[in-house]
Amino acid sequence: MAESRVALVTGGNRGIGLKVCRQLVARGLHVILTARDIAKAEAACRGIDATGAGSATPARLDVTDAHSIRILAHDLASRAILVDVLVNNAGILVGEDDEILETPLPDLRATFETNLVGAVAVCQAFVPSMIDRGYGRIVNVSSRAGQLSSMESYAPAYSISKAALNGFTRQLASATSGTDVLVNSACPGWVRTDIGGPGAPRSVEEGADTIVWLATLGARGPNGGFFSDRKKIDW
Q1: What is the DSSP letter of 100?
Q2: What is the mean pLDDT of residues 110-120?
Q3: How many whole angstroms separate alpha carbon 114 and alpha carbon 64?
Q4: From the candidates 86, 103, 143, 158, which is the catalytic residue?
Q5: Which residues are registered as beta bridge partners of 153?
Q6: Residues 119, 63 contacting (CB under 8 angstroms)
Q7: Integer Cα distance of 59 and 138 in angstroms
Q8: Is 141 exposed, middle or buried (0-12, 13-18, 19+ CB in 10 A)?
């Protein structure tokens, strides 16, 4: 990856998103670290090692707010900042112990708005210019909970939304085929974060690894796949 590459990470102020930002900066990218609260984005950027080969800039972005997406896209365009890498990391997990027939519909809608619709909306804002320039890397942060091949009753809203996000990955990968815009889903695994909890078996570093790998793929990298620990897994 060239040092001039620009990466935009949604939900980049904590957990896996923050670790992804740090690792991309270490690899020489300029990272737009976004959060719903600009103060949290600014604090996260201050905590990134300034000795990295790249740099990090804070930005406000609420993926469920179309106006917020437009404002950020306009601001970056006005400064001639072109996004080369997009990591759709923002996500929520609610009703983890609910059964599907008990899942409140507002929880289902809110989960889809963040985990699916938000990712689609951000891609609609930034991917067309990647296609025009003939380069882009999009990573949708998914979960094995969204695998149809093994899905059971865990966290219905979350699991179904991640299955839908994987469907979006396939659609977008097909739409960008042949353009050197590569689109993939990544499962970070059960990671020790605010969502995963302190008892999770994987470190944040382990969770971020496959995401960063997909975000920095070479020209002949995979497109339209679902990966865990850098290996392709079933949908």
Answers
A1: G
A2: 98
A3: 6
A4: 158
A5: none
A6: yes
A7: 19
A8: buried
Predicted local distance difference test score (pLDDT) of residue 148: 96
- The residue among 53, 29, 18 whose CA lies nearest residue 188 is 18
Instruction: Determine the Cα–Cα distance for residues 190 and 176; give it in Å rounded to an integer.
Output: 30
pTM to 2 decimal places: 0.95
Q: Kindly state the tokens that stand for 20.
A: 């992804």
163: confidence class by pLDDT, cuts 50, 70, 90: very high
State the pairing for strand pair 181-186/55-60: unpaired
Residue at 19: amino acid letter: K
How many CA within 13 A on the CB side of residue 89? Answer: 33
Query: Could you tell me if 9 and 34 are in contact, meaning their C-beta atoms sit under 8 angstroms apart?
Result: yes
How many residues are present in the chain? 235
Q: What is the mean pLDDT of residues 46-66?
A: 90
Segments making up each domain of the chain, as ranges = 6-232
Tell me which of 47-61, 148-162, 169-183 is least confident. 47-61
Structure tokens at 44: 């996260």
Assigned token pair, 140: 């949708």
What is the pLDDT at residue 160? Answer: 98
Q: State yes or no: pLDDT of 14 exceeds 70.
A: yes
Beta-bridge partner residues of 227: 186, 232
Q: Are 13 and 38 in contact (CB under 8 A)?
A: no
- Mean pLDDT, range 49-73, rounded to an integer: 92
SS3 223: coil
Amino acid at 194: D
Predicted confidence band of residue 231 (pLDDT cuts 50, 70, 90): very high
Task: Answer yes or no: CATH 3.40.50.720 is held by domain 6-232.
Answer: yes
158 flagged as catalytic: yes
Joined tokens for residue 166: 């994987």
